[in-house]
Specification:
Largest sheet: 4 strands, mixed
CATH architecture: Sandwich
Structural class: alpha+beta
Radius of gyration: 18 Å
Strand content: 35-45%
Order of helices and strands: HEEEEEEEEE
Strand order of the largest sheet: 4-2-8-9
CATH superfamily: Domain of unknown function DUF5300
Number of strands: 9
CATH topology: Immunoglobulin-like
Number of helices: 1
Helix content: 10-25%
Number of domains: 1
CATH class: Mainly Beta
Length: 115
């Protein structure tokens, strides 16, 4: 009976951890400006978290790895700040399926390439 109970507890524990995913990704600056700060939040959330940029600044065509875990959401918004204080927001980035996110700007505004 103890073995069955332990097995059920282990299955339950591993099942819960599968809901919290590791959503690390590589961020590529495909913009023509230097990125100084990056904030992410689940899509539909009202507030931004802490700056997640893992380098001092991210120059055009450079990349860095972004690390975070413990969330079950797949849809995320990314907000990147330029040196002059201006910023752009990319919405509905799928961090469950894609692991390289290139931030770009088009005539229509911010656009993310997800790989």
């Amino acid at each position: 009976m103890k073995k069955i109970f332990l097995a059920v507890v282990m299955i339950f524990a591993f099942g819960l951890t599968s809901f919290a995913q590791q959503q690390n990704f590589t961020l590529v600056n495909g913009c023509d400006f230097i990125i100084t700060h990056v904030y992410i939040t689940p899509t539909q959330a009202d507030n931004w978290g802490e700056d997640v940029l893992t380098v001092d600044v991210l120059a055009p065509d450079e990349e860095c790895d972004i690390y975070f875990t413990g969330y079950s959401e797949c849809g995320w918004d990314i907000q990147a700040y330029a040196e002059d204080g201006s910023y752009a927001t990319w919405t509905n980035i799928d961090l469950c399926e894609y692991f390289v996110i290139t931030l770009t700007m088009t005539d229509d505004g911010p656009y993310a390439i997800m790989e």
